[in-house]
Amino acid sequence: MYAILWGMQTDVACSRLRELILDGSYPPGARLTETEAAATLEMSRTPVREALRMLAADGLVRPAGRGVVVVALEAGDLDEAYQVRAALEALTAELAAARQREGRIAPADLRALREVATLTATATAEGRLADAVRLNRRFHRTIAELAGNTMALRALERIWDQIQVSTLHSLVPPSRPAHVSDQHERLVAAITGGRPEEAAAIARDHVLDTRITARPDKEEHT
């Protein structure tokens, strides 16, 4: 019983610390000790210690003395992250469209995808950057969930985290919000229409377009 409770506390600590890192409360370069994290979360140090190890394994922090430091990807590593993301999102879009063609996706799930695409477009057009980032990730995660490939989803979660931490400090409104929204809509249409090859191509181009604009001093979240 104790082991189960300890594991649950560790998961909670990891989730809450991840959120604080992803929303910029702990920006790249910030140092965090077990004691400070435990005080912030109002938890004991044992689950916090394990949570920091898990975050280090995911590449969000690195050990530094008695604590950790939040890590941002260098420009070259960021390029590589986008290349892998493009390949994986092309795969998940292709799988989602194939499953739709086979009648394995519920209409309600497709409606949810369309709705989040609309919400993302609205937040982007209105300049609500924090909301746009959150909704954008929800949009891409929804596609990955529709793909039905747990391993791809887990890999994407890690890459999305690393990209978000590395670019959050340079958030600006996208230079071409209509283009971004159009790519999302075309991707939804390809998946809904059960066209795997088209969905994969759109998803890949969409991510690579983002990579071109996503530099340490320039970011367009899509």
From TrEMBL:
Domain of life: Bacteria
UniProt cross-references to SUPFAM superfamilies, sorted A to Z: GntR ligand-binding domain-like, Winged helix' DNA-binding domain
Keyword DNA-binding annotated: yes
GO molecular function (one): DNA binding
Pfam families xrefs: FCD, GntR
Key words of the record: DNA-binding, Transcription, Transcription regulation
Domain HTH gntR-type intervals: 7-73
Record protein name field: DNA-binding GntR family transcriptional regulator
Organism whose genome encodes this protein: Nonomuraea polychroma
